[in-house]
Amino acid sequence: MAGSGSDSDGQQYDATPFLPRRGGLPAHRRAAADCRGCPLFQDATQTVFGAGSTSARVMLVGEQPGDQEDRQGEPFVGPAGGLLRKALQDAAIDVDQTYVTNAVKHFKFTIATRGKRRIHKPPSLRDMTACRPWLNAELRLVDPEVVVALGATAGKALLGSSFRVTKDRGTLIPFPEEEGQRRAAADGGGLVVATLHPSAILRSDDREAAYAGLVSDLRVAAGALAGKS
Q1: What angle do CA 198, 199, 205 make, to 5 degrees?
Q2: Domains in the chain, please, with CATH?
Q3: Cys bridge to 44: 78, 79, 106, 171, which one at CB 3.0-4.6 A?
């Protein structure tokens, strides 16, 4: 997924020129606020960078900010975020020791035909690819032991276009070689666990069963952490 994205008009989009040459997460967060690497910044209220522990053992990657995240400038502060925090607690993962972010840092939406309600629109491959340098920087700077991909978009951003959340969820997947090289630890590098996005749980006809599946997948991540302790 590395490289620059392009639109149907052939225009290339890439966030790389906006990344700081040095500095940790605070420097990258400040720089991301001025990112113009793809057209999504034009309609979004603000960039929504990742948040959480800078030494987190677990990084959770979602799709993109939602309406509330776009307004508040923080990831996972809406209903899906509340459900995610509950699921982490039920899976025995310390919320304070996690880092949460999204594959795409700007809210992509359409306006409802009637009224002014902003309706979520899934990011395209172009959007994910253009924004990938920010996610790469977060992976490098946080250096988590386990990354949880929340939904299909995050899974494809981390593992490639062949990823299927329904097929690959709930299992420990080694990072692709390109990403695994970011870790120098002797324990064999980072792992990915995929699951459904919390917003999909909220939309489910059988929310109780869907939530149980989310917690079960998160327990796989918790077990991996226990094995590395």
Answers
A1: 100
A2: 31-228 (3.40.470.10)
A3: 106
**CA pair distance 192, 41, nearest whole angstrom:** 29
**Token duo for residue 89:** 């607690």
Q: How far apart are CA 18 and CA 106, in angstroms?
A: 15
| Whole-angstrom distance, CA of residue 9 vs CA of residue 118 | 26
Q: Using an 8 Å Cβ cutoff, are 120 and 55 in contact?
A: no
- Rounded Cα distance, 32 and 43, in Å: 16
Reported as a single tens digit per residue, the pLDDT across 165-211 is 989 999 999 987 654 444 433 334 589 999 999 999 999 999 999 99
Sole residue written with tokens 């996610």:
135
Please tell me the total number of residues recorded for the chain in this structure.
Answer: 229
Residue 165's alpha-carbon distances to 65, 115, 168, 181, 207, in angstroms, are 20, 34, 5, 24, 18
How far, CA to CA in Å, does 133 sit from each of 14, 32, 71, 140? 8, 11, 23, 10
Q: Which residues pair with 84 in a beta bridge?
A: none
Q: Which residue has the tokens 């910044």?
A: 41
Helices (H), the chain: 25-32, 67-72, 79-90, 125-142, 152-159, 165-168, 177-180, 198-203, 207-228
Q: How many CB atoms lie within 10 A of CB 60?
A: 30
**Claim: this prediction has a pTM higher than 0.85:** yes
Separation CA 114–CA 193 (nearest Å): 39
Q: Is residue 138 classed as helix, strand or coil in its secondary structure?
A: helix
